Amino acid sequence: MAETMVAAPRKPAEGAPVLSVRDLCVEFDTRDGVRPVVQSVSLDVYAGRTLAVLGESGSGKSVTARSVMGLIDPPGRITGGQVLFEGTDLVQVSAEERRLVSGEKVAIVFQDALSALNPVFSVGEQIAELLRTRRGLSRREAAAGAVDLMARVRIPAAKRRAKEYPHQFSGGMRQRAMIAMALALEPTVLIADEPTTALDVTVQAQIMDLLLDLQDETGMGMILITHDLGVVAETADTLAVMYAGRIVERGRVDDVFARPAHPYTRGLLHSIPRLDREEESLWAIPGSPPTVLNRVTGCAFATRCDVAIDLCTTSRPDLTELRPAGRASACHRHEEVLHDRV
Amino acid sequence: MTASEPVLSVENLTRHFAGRRSVLPGRPATAVRAVDGVSFELHAGETLGIVGESGCGKSTLARMIVGLETPTSGAVRFRGTDVHSVRGRQARDLRRRVQIVLQDPYTSLNPRRTVRELLRQPFEIHRDLLPRKQQAARVAELVELVGLDPDHLDRYPFQFSGGQRQRIGIARALALSPDVIVCDEPVSALDVSIQAQVVNLFQRLQRELGLAYVFIAHDLSVVRHISDRVGVMYLGKLAELGSRRDVYDSPRHPYTSALLSAVPMPDPKVRGRRTRRLLEGDPPSPVDPPSGCRFRTRCWKATDECATVEPLLAGDDRHRQAFACHHPMPSTNGPATA
Lengths: 342, 338
Known about the structure:
heterodimer; A: alpha/beta; Rossmann fold; 2 domains; 4-stranded antiparallel β-sheet; 13 strands; about 35% helix; about 25% strand; B: alpha/beta; 11 helices; about 30% helix; about 20% strand; globular
């Protein structure tokens, strides 16, 4: 039961990103017509670094993650943009080629590990199956490999537990098993979609610690989809904030937390109670996040924004590059928000 | 804190659920000891926060306080009267004074009733409380109190967002003018930007109506923000109980300390500076809790004594907070802080 240090910030990434999303657009057919769920989203993932995608329900963060994995099925479809991985656009390749990348080079861990695991096979068998079908290992080799992977994600008594079924695992252990599966094929990029949301806080700390250690060992790039500002602050290097299907702000985590350049980010940061400060009442963003995405002419956040002006309801602000490099905000008043003048 | 008589007192409250009978002969049937001897007092206008991880018994505790669950032993007293032993008119009267707000108002509100009907329902059950003619006015008052749009009274629950549905749930709990509201994870299902609205609403209502809250949540930051006193539960028992400041600033039970250190801080500047104690494993099953101290299997301070002698919840001489531990964390606070 060790004392561990909250991981120190890493140096900014150098070189080219290992995975890039460019102008991704995803639509869903609904009873009320076609709804744009993700609009012109661009992201860069670097080796050994974590990009957090922060957003509330309906912001499009999970759909973005699924698009990268090629998991968008009707009634949803990707209507534009690219997912660039090792020089190929994954949106354009055949289903066969796609399969070689998804799960092998780009892996995903979901929030709900119980529904992602097959209840009728033991956890060890499920990990071993991956090693057999994708790596061509023999049954015996695959079974041993599965136990090794389970030990690597710190499942105690891995050899015995490999024979157990998912329902015999606690939530935290199931999530470890999912991480073991995702790591089995040594992915270049790991997408973690709300990996700790269903877990207790002491277990969440274990899982995030594990993910960061594994990232240091393997140098994989990570996309962390979350709504938790605390998890972002302690684990991510860069951050993209999504609202109503678009990125409204991005930048380095320390930079965005210190000086948010979008009123939505600023509002979120102010609205959470914190263990390290005391206040009479909380700052609250009025209204609710949009649930059904109607095409609004102006800024989607304008109706809830404390600094909105007339322009905001008539013209949608583009995501504008700011300094330092990588920093951007989609707000007409980003300069004033950034320098705390409004 | 007031020295007056508590509005609610929970005395050695216990709830065991019969478990599955063993298929092997001779083995006793298991019992889940969901809540196992919890005691505390709640004073008028005060908020007692209860934190703990899944399976610690906090929801069963909530259900027993409002009478949705019958205790195996122990008592819940409202102004001195045992809520679970009275019958008839007196029982109904006690029920209306202690209300509950649940986590998910989507599943706790009847989907086929409009907001107006939902808010009138309490008066249909407690018929003698308010003449029919005055009910419409009371509903309008409630709607205004929780910040709902009066034009939306004829809508159904599904037509509201999560935050608004929680406001409907709160209005319903307020309908019969209770003295105590038990809030069971009332903001956990809400989006971050909505949580603050609902937390602020709870605080405003407390100021205006003098309500006392038992505020149960797993989010330690929210509980710290809203509570005057805090109880920390682990496997059906209180591990620590004290003023908000004592418990958060100077936790004495190792579990409280580990729990607080696990909360991620929304401030990137603490990286590389803050240390955290990682507990191993998950909380054990309440079906077969560890002997002695229930936390000992995950505790880094545990000794042989912890396996044999169960530590009782008690305060030390200088401090007001009580804790159940043989090897408490050193106190970092000065003597008795309020």
